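Researcher: Next entry in the queue.
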Amino acid sequence: MNLTRSLCTVVVAGALSLLVETALGQGRTRIDVRVDQPGVKISPVFYGLMTEEINHAYDGGLYGELIQNRSFRDSRTTIPHWSVWSSGSGTGAIKLENESVNGSPLGVSLRLDVASAGPSGLVGVANDGYWGVPVKPHTTYHASFYAKASGDLPLEVSIQSRDKQTSLAQAPVHRLTSEWRKYSVTLRTGSFSAITDGQFVIAAGQGGTVWFKDVSLFPPTVKGRPNGNRIDLMNMLAEMKPSFLRLPGGNYLEGDTIPDRFNWKETIGDISERPGHQGPWRYRSSDGLGLLEFLEWCEDLRMQPLLAVYAGYSLRQQHVEPGPALAPYVQDAVDEIEYVTGSAKTKWGAIRAKNGHPRPFPLTYVEIGNEDQFDRSRSYDGRFAQIFDAIKARWPKLQVIATMPVQSRKADVIDDHYYRSWTEMARDSGHYDRYARTGPKIFVGEWASIGGNPTPTFKEALGDAAWLTGLERNSDLVVMESYAPLMVNVNPGGSQWPTNLIGYDGLTSFGSPSYYVQTMFGQNTGDTVLPVAIEMANRKPAPLPAPHGAIGLGTYRTNAEYKDVEVTAGGKTLYSKDFSSGADGWSTPVGTWGVESGAFRQTSNRQDTHAAAGDATWTDYSYRVKARKISGAEGFLVLFHVRDDSNYMQWNIGGWGNTSSAIQRHEDGGLDELGEHSPTTVETDRWYDVRIDVRGTDIKCYLDGKLITEAAVTPIPPVKALYAAASSRQSDGTVYLKVVNVSKNAERAGVNLLGLSSSGLDVSAWEMTGPLAASNSVKNPKLVAPKPISIQADGSTISHEFPAYSVTVIRVRRRE
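Model: Structure for this entry, 816 residues:
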């Protein structure tokens, strides 16, 4: 996914205001489930997981390693996360040196010079982990490192409290030699309260020099794997009942540059021989969670891998032309598939066996690239064809996924990505109802209702649930789906993307309300779609208000300043501000705003900064402001019809890389465009006169007195109150019904299971509801979570009041 790169294939069907149909009359809602008319088969791999290294999902997350910068390669000039440690008056110093380990090309070691340790003191190196080293009582940790010393030097390995007052576990290494060796110790903790801010220490009790390489500390892992995954997060993923894992996933596959791509051949074998690489999300990946570990992750959760292979495009618009230049990357893809699926008699299958896994892994789907629609060279069609042909020639039964529609070959599956507001997701739940069934199948490989940070609130979960009902209903076409991003470390600086399914710190993990939607749905889906019809009680749509709102200013990755704001209507001045006396009356929710030399200036490089002033009840007016770009990637954002921080319109002047302008509408986190784009480039250090006239639904935008663009405000249809999907397990007749109420009113409904025997039915049900803005957290992990409820069947009819803002799952079984 790629928020900084215009979102990932953001598909906008029109932003939505939260206008939900409400019951205004007599009558009762009816939900008919046609158990006697089974529909299409549901894909056996429908629910799955998408993963990539973002938000410290691997290092500092799922991957169990507790040492950050274990190979000392995170910086060439400093030694982040490492420091000199002492327990007494001793002194020492550390520095980086180029030094090989058993001929390894990594070539970096940490040198510790102990000047003096003192009679009872220790001097060593300490690592602070990922926001501290988390330590639990009565737990066994495994530490290892390569080391050599200038003499016969004993060491003590320990886990310490940050204040150096408590050693939580320790073990000796009795003597080092002048040759590189690997040392391993077991650290067992005793009784204490768990902490998140411990530190790992290797210390000497006498003077001398020690060199370290590849220092590692692991807590207990799933199945005791020595290079394994964190247990609580794996258990949470297992609760979702996933059938596949898209790996390595997303921008992590492409990298910012071609050298920074996921080069799978450098992620296998001994971890001390893996160089790691710079990831696209502002931090370096250790590659401890490499290709084989991904596959073992699949094995542990009984999922199948959905393998994404690098396709010759990286995010900073580097690409490889189809033909001879692409051939080495095609061979890499073929080798990778052989590593996954080949017998131990093949070249790469034998290497996998040497790495510790003789048995091949199952593989049905291979995706070529990721989000290649962002490649401005438009070379994907040719690149796809070359890789597609090589794969099909060797493995004709593999299903090959394209990241965008292609013409050169017939892809088996197309990968669609959607990131939108929760109301947009709900309104578009019927997106695939209209698709023809004659083309490629669909993989909704990344999607989410955007809102909440670092995890979604309950309102996003409602949008997710409504969207999922549409995907499940169309499972003959949509063969797979996976929410993204999957995980986020909630510590400060851990997140690079605002809305994520599962949150955690070093000790504790929690599911968002959207996570519980995934578990409720994943655990309650049959193998066959059942038709569902909803007949709502008498109701009238709420009237749509006229366009209205205050005014504002903003930027997108640009520094700019504004002055001489004036709002007039009918020959009268509604508001004026020259900023000579400050910016009182202006709210500044996003960005770094201040007044300098009589201008209102925004100086951060953030996206979508904004400030606002005026009266939200204003309707028809003329808004004027002077604007000057100081530096940055784009031009100006001039806001109007501002109702609140999430609902406003804007004229984007010099957007899209400072090439174009257009009128945009922000509505509850969603974004759409009104009218046409106009070519516009904003010059730096030049003052522009901006004017926006709004009259009813008409908008006209002028730059230096010239009409640049105009549009009409189109009404936004209301969101439906109820969404539903049903399925059955044909082997035993179990019926599953999901109902999502996105309205503010409870909905009393009769559920009719048409064609189901009315005798001997057992009904189980779970429901999740809560305040729209509620979210879960480390301190309150289940504030919004599903709870079992009691529902009785009267024959083949169920009567239930679906609460306002709720997700309900009902399971009906014949009594044995």
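Model: The first strand starts at residue 22 and ends at 23.
Researcher: Noted, moving on.
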